[in-house]
Amino acid sequence: MICNVFTQSIKRKYLVLAFVLVCGLTIMVSYYKPISHRYMFLPDTQVANLNFYDQNVISGFVFGKGTPMAVSCPLLLSGNKQEMLVAQSFKRTTRIPSFYYSYLAKNCSLFKSRRNYITSSLTLEEEQFPIAYSMVVYKDVEQVERLLRSIYRPQNIYCVHLDNKSEPEFRETLTEITNCFQNVFVSKESLDVRWGTMSVLEADLICMHELWKYKSWKYFINLTGQEFPLKTNAEIVGILKNLNGKNNIRKSVLNRWATRWEKAGKAPAGIIPVKGDLQIAVNREFVDYVLHNKTAKKFLKWCSKTKVPDETFFVSLHYNKHLKIGGSYTDDQGNSTDPPYITRFKTWEGTAKPCHGKYVRRVCVYGVGDLPLLINRKELFVNKLHLDFEPLALDCLEETLYNVTRNEYFQTLEGNGPPKHT
Fold it and tell me: What gap in Å lies between CA 220 and CA 98, rounded to an integer?
């Protein structure tokens, strides 16, 4: 008899447990849209970590809700040495996985809300000055998505080139994210981008072609997945407007690059090759020339025979004044009123600029020790940051960006207008 009572007790416990599980699953299914089985049975600890990161850490960046981190970003930005030591030893154990982005992106309103996208133009000046962006990316969904979020405004246009060699999960997840926005799209063509080859240049050209059909944008800026803005959208707009239609492209002052072009023969149309940066901020007329002018097409073909053509094509078109491209360099006598290069901040190994992070392929990957420098730079974007190296550097830049955006917005609401740019 004791055995029967014991058996019945166990059965009742299992029945209650089964009832609770059925009810729980029923609530989940009724609340969420149908989702893949891989999202249905996340471990409780993983869900808790994701919810904390998504709702607390990230929301903390938006409009100054606080800094729910192990360090103080204001102290890091001020160069506090003790806080630097804490930040440099910090190791992030939880990253936002691809499947969580995919899960959120199944409900675009939920995705934009939970990821705190700014879905307003915020100011009339920003609304009337749309910017076109190309984003050439190949890895790290979280870092790429946070870059997109940091520059996103509904009036801008974004072309994302997904590297052909990227992992399928990376490609699928970013495609799902871009599908949540009418003004963000993945390029139709995808290349295997390799440094030093035409593919680096061609990836941007692919996006230029696809962005050209959008008639509203004023300037084009090209980005990669390891970059991040140092200025808010309102600041970028103000700075670009102050260019007065001029393009912003940098050339190298060193005269040691002729060996890159020696096997290509003489450049067409009297063009004198120049070495410079791939990163540009250019007006529509420059993009029109690149895409449709016969001389530009001939020069592109010539560049395909050179070494590292992406560091020759744009900059040479810009600095050959006889081409008469609107907004390009006009005076080689040293009297030019062209503005200084503000498109990108980058530190090369062997230069006088400090790097408190680490060098990868001779380019500085900035760390928390570089924050006091970065926060005071005049450039629009920084290259580069790695989320798996001293991640609080990116976190604090992101927090600062959103807090400055908040201040700009409230300043506009109070009738003081957006900040002035010099």
Answer: 29
Q: Which residue has the tokens 């879905």?
A: 119
pLDDT value, residue 337: 60
> Would you say residue 212 has pLDDT above 70?
yes
> CA angle, 401 as apex, 400 and 403 as ends, to 5°?
65
Query: Domains in the chain: how many in total?
Result: 1
Domain-embedded: residue 382: yes
CA distance 286 to 202: 16
Residue 322 falls within a domain, yes or no? Answer: no
- 113 domain residue, yes or no: no
Q: Which residue has the tokens 């990253």?
A: 95
pLDDT digits (tens, 9 = 90+) for 371-418: 999 999 999 999 999 999 999 999 999 999 999 999 999 888 877 655
Beta strands in 165-298 (DSSP E): 184-186, 219-224, 227-229, 281-283
Phi-psi region of 308 (alpha: psi -120 to 50; beta: other; left: phi over 0): left
Three-state secondary-structure class, residue 141: helix
Strands 157-162 and 184-186: parallel
Q: Give domain status of residue 419, yes or no.
A: yes
Q: Where in the sequence numbering do the catalytic residues fall?
A: 311
